[in-house]
Design brief:
Elements lengths: L4 H11 L5 H7 L5 E2 H7 L4 H13 L3 E7 L6 E7 L3 H26 L4 E3 L6 E3 H6 L12 E3 L2 H16 L43
Antiparallel strand pairs: 1-3, 2-3, 4-5, 4-6
The structure holds zinc ion (ZN).
The site of zinc ion has 7 residues, from loops.
């Protein structure tokens, strides 16, 4: 797999945050650049730049060394972008998405045709929880409606299939977005600790 710039930016954005992109864009093809220089070049405050650099460092996306500046008498850190790390992070993201979707699917299939939704979408719960709530939304008091979750199941199956298909990460970054199509903005109730996706298949973690 070729690590394109788009893949670099998508991955960094997802794990470190969009504000770090300016630093990565600047640092991408360079080596040992001081934080002062980075701040100057991307026109940002040195404190903001250091914050971003340490966040990148937490994900091993940059390396640095410190050197005492003879004239100024203080230490300056010099930073290098660690492009090799991108592939590993992409893999981790890929598998954690697979696991999350598989868990959601397992939950949806276990409660097929038996999910309850507040008309204002405050909550979405299974039959057991709905009974606990007396079929009334604990947030707004509306009567919970029975919801056909077959579309959600289809959606999740499609996502998982797509994730399997893109095991080579060919579509990383533009294919799947978490949470889309799962209903109308309500958060899913997760349960389950296995990763069976409901039809006998197991999500197998490939070791590199
Ligand atoms: Zn409600």
């Amino acid at each position: 797999m070729k690590v394109t710039n788009t893949k670099i930016y998508d991955t960094v954005k997802e794990v470190v945050g969009e504000d770090s992109l300016k630093v990565v864009e600047f640092l991408r093809d360079k080596k040992n650049i001081s934080d002062f220089k980075i701040a100057e070049k991307v026109k940002a405050d040195i404190h903001e730049i250091r914050n971003i650099l340490y966040r990148l460092y937490n994900h091993n996306l940059v390396t640095y060394y410190r050197k005492k500046d003879r004239q100024k008498g203080w230490y300056i850190s010099y930073w290098t972008f660690n492009k090799k790390r991108i592939k590993d992070i992409m893999k981790n993201l890929h598998y954690s998405k697979m696991e999350k979707f598989a868990e959601r699917l397992k939950h949806e299939e276990a409660n097929k045709g038996n999910m309850y939704l507040c008309p204002s979408a405050c909550v979405r719960v299974n039959f057991e929880k709905a009974t606990d709530f007396g079929f009334k939304c604990p947030e707004c008091g509306s009567i919970l409606n029975l919801q056909d979750n077959s579309k959600t199941i289809e959606f999740l199956q499609g996502q998982i299939k797509e994730l399997y298909r893109t095991n080579g990460f060919s579509k990383m970054g533009n294919g799947f977005k978490m949470g889309n199509g799962l209903g109308n903005g309500h958060s899913m109730v997760l349960n389950g600790n296995g990763h069976s996706i409901g039809n006998g298949h197991k999500v197998v973690k490939k070791s590199k």
